[in-house]
Automatic annotation (TrEMBL):
Cofactor(s) required for function per UniProt: [2Fe-2S] cluster
Top-rank taxon, per record: Eukaryota
Main location: mitochondrion
Record-annotated Iron-binding zinc finger CDGSH type domain positions: 59-97
Pfam families: zf-CDGSH
Single annotated GO MF: 2 iron, 2 sulfur cluster binding
Name this polypeptide is given: Iron-binding zinc finger CDGSH type domain-containing protein
Ribosomal protein keyword on record: no
Transmembrane portions of the chain: 17-35
UniProt record, GO biological process: regulation of autophagy
Gene3D superfamilies in alphabetical order: CDGSH iron-sulfur domain, mitoNEET-type
UniProt-listed InterPro entries: CISD1/2, FeS-contain_CDGSH-typ, MitoNEET_CISD
């Protein structure tokens, strides 16, 4: 078992110092990377869904009257549609590029 009782027990040769400094640098690098991954505020925005629609608003909200929807309405859920809030099929490209599985919200009247 290794124990340090005095300064004379510390490593003195250049090889020992290189090993000690290398281990300390490696531990510091691992600690820094762990901090960036788990505690950095930058990661809050990496999962941002809305990349361009009404970015000047604090919250994007659309409201529709049921009576105005007609027989069927198809709404975007991927935030990539050029006709947002309506779906234009952009989720297909988004899913191919990201591996996601998002699709539209489809609202239709029930057959009587």
């Amino acid at each position: 078992m290794l124990s340090l009782h005095s300064l004379s027990d510390l490593p003195h040769g250049p090889v020992e110092w290189v090993v000690a400094v290398s281990c300390a640098a490696g531990a510091a690098a691992i600690g820094f990377l762990a901090y960036k991954k788990f505690f950095s505020k930058d990661r809050c925005c990496s999962g941002m869904v809305n990349l361009q629609i009404q970015k000047d608003n604090p919250k994007v909200v659309h409201a529709f009257d049921i009576e105005d929807l007609g027989e069927k309405a198809v709404y975007c859920r991927c935030w990539r549609s050029k006709k947002f809030p309506l779906c234009d099929g952009s989720h297909t490209k988004h899913n191919d590029e990201t591996g996601d599985n998002v699709g539209p919200l489809i609202i239709k009247r029930k057959d009587a």
